[in-house]
């Protein structure tokens, strides 16, 4: 209208120059606030040693293998061993399997890979010398783990082992094809190199008594295992070959199958080991079990491998009697059916009244082992005659601790390691040196319904490879390659542990998550929509009601 | 960070978007890729409010707030001025579904027909949310809004805006959603780099209050829209060459609808649900056919 021509002729228009953040504190809209929270992953919760799996996986992902190993060693000194033989309780709870119907992350294979990658690293004593002397009796996984943790804490540790070498069931019980002796040797050597004194060929009871040790040492940890064959109620039991001594002989290269047709009674891990070792010695093998496949206590994959080795299984057969007849053994079997659950929670087998007979050249018993506790004085026994052992390994004698299979009956290597560690911590505590054991706040476990598997890469789970076996007892699997381990680690949702994936940052509609190599939630502006919490793959964030955290 | 999404932030905190606002998130993600050398033109829409009251402003780029029908033509003018200044600034018209499908359609069509060198982004929340959830021509069949209440929910199908745009044969058009941020960033990058002509992005943008749902489910609902083929992700070059960029996985449409209160009536009406299901499948088949004709060498990946 006015003939606007030059820019100076235009009227002023309102221009906003301040950012909205200068004026609008939208955090005031919020009734709940997201908080990054460290929580327990279901894998960690399932692990007897409570290894912080998402945390060390994150360190692996970032290429910080030293830190990953350090973190691992806080809970378990032997990743090369458990990485091979652990029944991986961790994988049973994996959120991927439970929430996304995917194969669980191959946690044990990554553990094995980490252990092998860092095998050259010596163990170090982290604390100042305490000049406290501690005796460990029994060189199996519990005793070795306790030695590691006590030596690391600066104590002078002597490990007494009744055989020629330390290693216990890992050396003498687990077959070579599952756990090569050189791996166990290597771990024993690393203990010796860090200053654990290992005395072999001496045994509690024969060479010294508990009282002798108590007089010479500040504390004693006894972990002599469960090596005594459990008695069965099979008539003619003396005709049966016990399983563990057979495995030990085989490990020494002295195993013989004692004929072509062999039976193994029992369906635990010892039974699988015996059956598969016999197959390698050329025998035909039948496993006989009074319940069914679903109740067997062996690790599923050992059963699968036994099947692949062409071991035969006879389910619902309970041996009643063994008879020697000419050159063979006759095994009388009662046919069973499953009844009501018994105290173990598994259906109890009941006789059907039918029986049959099978003929073998030799029959091996792998029906379980019990602890030899004759060396413990009466004052340390409970009403049942067992050694009274607390969760931390404490006994009725304040200077004596015990743990492992001795206390629990035959269990797994990882459970023995956890027991050794718990006892080491209790001993260290009792001696007044608790500083090396950082207290971990108890936190709640991430539930399957909370995780968000949308963003994980969908590729197949990487397992240890089967190798072409050149000799009959060579290790049957190979460790993952670096690339496979990296890919597999990427599948982990990192439950309850922020691994800086950036999902919360990407999806925040309010730019209220500031990225500083990791998320920082700006509560001055966060409106509390909750998107970050539900999109977080591992639910390492929680929503907290403002009334619980606000000062107003 | 494991996402291929730029870390740089060009949207301020303290915007006036509601909790879980898909429009705010869309803007934030788009600007991450566009960067600071840009001018925004925003007609009447939620973003007129989200951007903050005078004297505040939420973005690192200058924005002109304009009348409802004029986003495309104002952007055209700004681009012309920038060209005269010898600058290569990206000019973005940023409109809701009202300013795109309905009130802004004439200016949009004109700019598209002239192949103006601008980027037009429609953040589509499928109704006039800012004024109180009135239906638009983007509102899908069976939807509750305040003007299509439960007694007579939206009867007509959602307008095929991508078809209209493609008919103008502009160099680049694409659908995207913040639930697939890497796909979105890649398309923004392509759009910015396709200079010299009109580019169009159609972004499905959740509105938790208008869709009657919890804010924390905002990402999941957009993801389900894609997975159930309700909102397929694809791009169109020169109006003819179609490429599906994310293959849906046969999620039943109910899994998308049932997250939202605005589809309560639809879900209780099997007959109408069948019609909607048929529409979704029919549109998908048309899109699939176009994709296959554009890529005869590629077999569909599912």
State the major sheet of chain B: 8 strands, mixed
CATH class of chain B: Alpha Beta
* Full CATH superfamily name of the largest domain in chain A: FAD/NAD(P)-binding domain
Radius of gyration of chain B from the CA trace? 18 Å
**Count of helices of chain A?**
20
The greatest interface here is: A-B, 39 and 40 residues
Number of strands of chain A: 22
CATH architecture assignment name of the largest domain in chain A: 3-Layer(bba) Sandwich
CATH topology of the largest domain in chain A: FAD/NAD(P)-binding domain
Spatial strand arrangement across the major sheet of chain B? 3-1-4-5-7-6-8-9
**Order of neighbouring strands in the sheet with most strands of chain A:** 5-4-3-6-17
**Major sheet description of chain A:** 5 strands, parallel
Helix content of chain A: 25-40%
Structure explained in plain terms:
The complex is a heterodimer of chains A (552) and B (302). Chain A contains 20 helices and 22 strands. Chain A folds into four domains: 18-38 and 499-549, Alpha-Beta Plaits; 42-121 and 441-490, Fumarate Reductase Iron-sulfur Protein, Chain B, domain 2 (Orthogonal Bundle); 133-227 and 371-432, 3-Layer(bba) Sandwich (FAD/NAD(P)-binding domain), CATH 3.50.50.60; 234-366, FAD/NAD(P)-binding domain (3-Layer(bba) Sandwich), CATH 3.50.50.60. Helix content of chain A is 29%, strand content 19%. Chain A has a five-stranded parallel β-sheet, sandwiched between helices. Chain A has a five-stranded parallel β-sheet with strand order 8-15-9-10-11. In chain A, strands 12-13-14 form a three-stranded antiparallel β-sheet, with no helix packed on it. In chain A, α14 (300-308) links the parallel β10 (284-288) and β11. The model of chain A has no long low-confidence stretch (mean pLDDT 92). Chain A is α/β, with parallel strands linked by helices. Chain B starts with 21 loop residues before the first helix and ends in an 8-residue tail after the last helix. Chain B has helices at 22-34, 46-50, 71-84, 98-102, 105-113, 161-167, 181-193, 218-227, 253-257, 264-267, 270-294; strands at 38-42, 56-57, 63-65, 90-95, 119-124, 172-177, 199-204, 233-237, 241-246. Helix content of chain B is 36%, strand content 15%. In chain B, α1 (22-34) crosses α7. In chain B, β8 and β9 (241-246) form a beta hairpin. Chain B has one domain (22-294): Thiamin diphosphate (ThDP)-binding fold, Pyr/PP domains (Rossmann fold). At the A-B interface, β1, α18 and α19 of A face α1, β2 and α8 of B. β1 (18-19) of chain A pairs parallel with β2 (56-57) of chain B.
């Amino acid at each position: 209208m006015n003939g606007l021509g030059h820019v100076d002729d235009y009227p002023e228009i309102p221009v906003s120059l301040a950012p909205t953040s200068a004026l609008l504190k939208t955090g005031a809209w919020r009734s709940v606030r997201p908080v990054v929270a460290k929580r327990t992953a279901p894998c960690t919760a399932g692990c007897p040693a409570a290894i912080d799996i998402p945390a060390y996986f994150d360190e692996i992902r970032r290429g910080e293998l030293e830190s990953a190993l350090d973190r691992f060693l806080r809970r378990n000194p032997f990743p090369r061993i458990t990485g091979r033989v652990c029944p991986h309780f961790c994988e049973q709870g994996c959120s991927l399997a439970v929430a996304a119907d995917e194969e669980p992350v191959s946690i044990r294979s990554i553990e094995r890979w980490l252990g092998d990658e860092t095998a050259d690293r010596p163990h170090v004593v982290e604390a100042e010398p305490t000049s406290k002397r501690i005796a460990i009796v029994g060189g199996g996984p519990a005793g070795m783990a306790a030695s590691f943790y006590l030596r690391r804490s600066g104590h002078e540790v002597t490990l007494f082992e009744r055989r020629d070498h330390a290693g216990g069931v890992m050396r003498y019980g687990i077959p070579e094809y599952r756990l090569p002796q050189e791996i166990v040797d290597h771990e024993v050597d690393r203990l010796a190199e860090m200053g654990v004194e290992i005395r072999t060929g001496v045994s509690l009871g024969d060479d010294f008594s508990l009282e002798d040790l108590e007089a010479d040492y500040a504390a004693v940890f006894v972990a002599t295992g469960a090596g005594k064959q459990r008695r069965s109620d099979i008539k003619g039991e003396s005709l049966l070959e016990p399983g563990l001594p057979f495995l030990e002989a085989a490990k020494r290269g002295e195993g013989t199958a004692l004929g072509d047709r062999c039976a193994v009674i029992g369906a635990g891990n010892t039974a699988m080991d015996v059956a598969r070792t016999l197959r390698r010695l050329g025998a035909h093998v039948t496993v006989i079990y009074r319940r069914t496949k679903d109740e067997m206590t062996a690790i599923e994959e050992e059963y699968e491998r036994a099947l692949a080795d062409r071991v035969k299984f006879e389910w619902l057969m309970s041996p009643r009697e063994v008879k020697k007849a000419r050159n063979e053994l006759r095994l009388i079997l009662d046919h069973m059916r499953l009844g009501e659950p018994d105290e173990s929670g598994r259906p109890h087998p009941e006789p059907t009244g039918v029986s049959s007979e099978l003929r073998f050249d030799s029959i091996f018993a792998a029906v379980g082992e019990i602890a030899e506790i004759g060396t413990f004085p009466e004052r340390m026994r409970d009403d049942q005659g067992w050694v009274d052992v607390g969760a931390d390994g404490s006994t009725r004698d304040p200077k004596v601790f015990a743990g492992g299979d001795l206390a629990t009956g035959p269990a797994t290597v990882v459970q023995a390691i956890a027991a050794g560690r718990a006892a080491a911590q209790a001993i260290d505590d009792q001696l007044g040196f608790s500083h090396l054991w950082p207290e971990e706040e108890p936190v709640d476990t991430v539930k399957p319904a909370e995780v968000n598997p949308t963003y994980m890469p969908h590729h197949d789970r990487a397992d240890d490879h089967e190798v072409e076996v050149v000799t009959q007892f060579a290790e049957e699997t190979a460790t993952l390659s670096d690339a496979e381990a990296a890919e597999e680690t990427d599948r982990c949702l990192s439950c309850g542990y922020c691994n800086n994936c950036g999902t919360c940052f990407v999806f925040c509609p309010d730019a209220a998550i500031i990225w500083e190599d990791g998320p920082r939630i700006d509560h001055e502006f966060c409106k509390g929509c909750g998107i970050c919490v539900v999109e977080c793959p591992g639910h390492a964030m929680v929503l907290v009601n403002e009334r619980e955290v606000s000062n107003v | 960070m494991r996402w291929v999404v730029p870390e740089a932030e060009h949207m301020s905190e303290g915007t006036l978007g509601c909790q879980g606002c898909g429009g705010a998130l869309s803007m934030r993600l788009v600007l991450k890729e566009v960067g600071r050398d840009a001018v925004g033109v925003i007609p009447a829409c939620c973003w007129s409010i989200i951007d903050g009251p005078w004297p505040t402003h939420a973005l690192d780029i200058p924005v002109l707030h304009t009348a409802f029908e004029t986003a495309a033509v104002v952007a055209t003018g700004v681009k012309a001025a920038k060209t005269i200044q010898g600058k290569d600034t990206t000019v973005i018209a940023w409109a809701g579904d009202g300013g795109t499908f309905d009130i802004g359609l004439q200016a949009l069509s004109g700019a598209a027909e002239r192949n103006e060198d601008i980027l037009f982004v429609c953040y589509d929340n499928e109704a006039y949310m800012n004024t109180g959830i009135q239906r638009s021509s983007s509102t899908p069949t069976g939807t509750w809004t305040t003007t299509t209440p439960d007694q007579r929910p939206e009867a007509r199908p959602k307008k095929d805006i991508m078809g209209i745009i493609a008919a103008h044969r502009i160099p680049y058009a694409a659908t995207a959603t913040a639930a697939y941020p890497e796909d979105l960033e890649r398309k923004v990058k392509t759009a910015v780099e396709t200079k010299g002509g009109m580019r169009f992005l159609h972004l499905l943008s959740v509105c938790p209050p208008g869709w009657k749902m919890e804010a924390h489910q905002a990402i999941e609902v957009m993801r389900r829209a894609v997975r159930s083929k309700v909102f397929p992700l694809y791009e169109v070059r020169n109006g003819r060459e179609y490429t599906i960029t994310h293959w849906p996985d046969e999620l039943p449409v109910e899994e998308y609808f049932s997250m939202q209160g605005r589809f309560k009536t639809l879900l209780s009406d099997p007959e109408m649900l069948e019609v909607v299901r048929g529409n979704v499948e029919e549109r998908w088949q048309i899109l699939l056919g176009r994709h296959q004709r554009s890529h005869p060498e590629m077999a569909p990946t599912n």
